[in-house]
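Dear colleague,

Following up on yesterday's call, I've attached the two folding results inline so they're easy to grep. Please treat them as preliminary; we haven't cross-checked anything against experimental data yet. The first protein's sequence and structure tokens come first.
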Amino acid sequence: MAQGSGSSARLGVLLGILLYLLAAKPIFAAEYKVVFNYFKERHNVAVLTKEGYDSCTAPSGSIVYQTGHDEIRLDPGQSYFICTTPGHCENGMKIAINASDSN
């Protein structure tokens, strides 16, 4: 289980590197917040289904965060995130996070 401050696990993106440290399928408790820090001029964070994650495609209507500091609450189960800047997801700027039910 990842340790966080309060109910927030902080996951940073620096210099265009998106969470390579978590490529080993991290597990968090549901209700945690994942915090993405990144250069908003170069990146974003899209919340997708597994299909969108696998294909690196954000369908119309997808939630896309663009503030450079996004706090996203995890629901139980898998959550999928990518950067939609062309070529970024295809080159590994994506992460799937498994949130366990805290009950």
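Below is the second protein, in the same order (sequence, then structure):
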Amino acid sequence: MARAKPPSTAWRNPGILSSSGGDFAMHHTLIATLAAAVTALLAFGASAAATLPHYADDIHLGVASCAGSTCHGAVEPWKDSTVLQNEYITWTRRDKHAKAYEVLLNDRSKLIARNLGLPNAHTASICLDCHADNVAADKRSKQFQISDGVGCESCHGGAARWLGIHVAGQANHQANLGAGMYPTEDPIERARLCLSCHFGDDRKFVTHRIMGAGHPRMSFELDTFTSIQPAHYRVDADYAKRKKVASGVQTWAIGQAMALAQIMDSMVDPKRARDGIFPELVTFDCHACHHPMSNVRWQARASTGLGPGVVRLNDANAIMLQAITRRVAPELGQRLSQQMLALHAAVSQGRGSAPDTAKAVGEVARQLVTRFAGHNFSREDMQSMFTALLAQGRAGEFTDYSGAEQATMAMSALAASLRQAGAIDDRQLQAINAALAKCYDATKEDEKYRPQAFVEALAGVEAALPKL
């Protein structure tokens, strides 16, 4: 199945002004400086985790409460406003979240519902929980419409307590958060929010049975998906006064650790870890089973310790973290590598110690979240992580499609962050982008993935990456 190709890495950091010409030169230094300053002052996620909007007690007023032309429904951005004012227009015209409910009405969704024994996809909570703002009936105002899809309050939180002070301009951002607004600017909290649907949590979870009924394969990378949303905000000096600012590479690193932690949580949770006598297969590598028998592509991978014929866990996030930790947190990286080897062995040899090992992996992943949140990623860090990814490719770590897919998005994020940090110029970025295009081509369709083609594409990226 083909997947959406992320945009050019010329400028991925969401909401920042255009990368063309002088705009890029003017703004990349500003954003890099802002991100470094904020990171030095405070770590993301330092306070207690916020309650996800779907689970909080606040009343949801509906998208219409934000759509006024003097609120967030302006056709064009306002020149003298601290926010763009056209956020609703961007969402409704360009953001796939706005069409999430409509997806439940198409033929594929009808087939999935029928295969699962559901009357309709658009009325089933198992579908609505992620394709709409499916809060309980007593949390919906009169103007709330479930058909709005994944709307404003799905991410920003029920607005009943904060809309008044927000509109009146009587409160700062911290006061809005105290009144129930969700801190989407914090990459840790954003990862929790996004992953609650793009993987699942203890209340909503896309199982292998749902996949078998026809649901597309799940894939997620926080920085890439933030970039292609598209952004309906602008990161500038005013933004940094009000909110936290994370660089693209920090967002990517935190997202990888959070994703691994979520996967490990599902393997520990007795409600999600098993499906009858089988393990819950959604945590395993899809393509270990789902590829033609004539496509004999198995290769040994040192990081798994597994032989042929073994159903493997999807360890793509762990592979990315190994590239990051070699530079940023080598002691935690070594622990992660050892525990992932133990987890692969435990899963392949039977249930046994797998839950305990998964718990240990999850604990390391959470320690990495904290480490990354407090780390100011330097250009040397980015260069090291980029070269580590390339080395993993040469070593055969991307023989599985999911690993190659994550590596492609990772290199895109790193290239953009190197440009934002001023480590490379526009010409060098264009050369990296041109080489990365072949990686995107090699991973465009998972069912046609050929590891050797990806390795060849990586060689082109390595040749284009300047030595800093």
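For the second protein, one point worth flagging: The beta strands are 274-275, 278-279.

Best wishes,
A.L.
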